[in-house]
């Protein structure tokens, strides 16, 4: 006595876990790219604010760090797509 349902192949627990992890990884990468992309937009304004307020003179490493962060965000976020 065989049923139609039992004759269908069932994915193993390992295959299901791999699929879930792959989907989770893709979602995490997309989220990181999105945050990096959108962070690239206001960072130059923050950097300009440090120059205007004189913070750059008292904390030059902060400005250098912000510039490096902007470059890293631009590189990481360049492949971001809105999914359209």
UniProtKB/TrEMBL annotation:
Pfam families: DUF8028 (PF26071). It comes from the Archaea. The chain crosses the membrane at residues 28-51, 57-77. Keywords: Membrane, Transmembrane, Transmembrane helix. This is Sensor histidine kinase.
């Amino acid at each position: 006595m065989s049923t139609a349902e039992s004759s269908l192949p069932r994915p193993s627990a390992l295959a299901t876990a791999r699929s879930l992890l792959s989907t989770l990884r893709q979602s995490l990468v997309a989220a990181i790219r999105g945050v990096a992309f959108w962070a690239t937009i206001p960072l130059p304004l923050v950097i300009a604010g440090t120059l205007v307020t004189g913070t750059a003179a008292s904390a030059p490493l902060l400005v250098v760090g912000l510039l490096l962060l902007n470059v890293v965000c631009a590189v990481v976020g360049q492949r971001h797509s809105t999914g359209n």
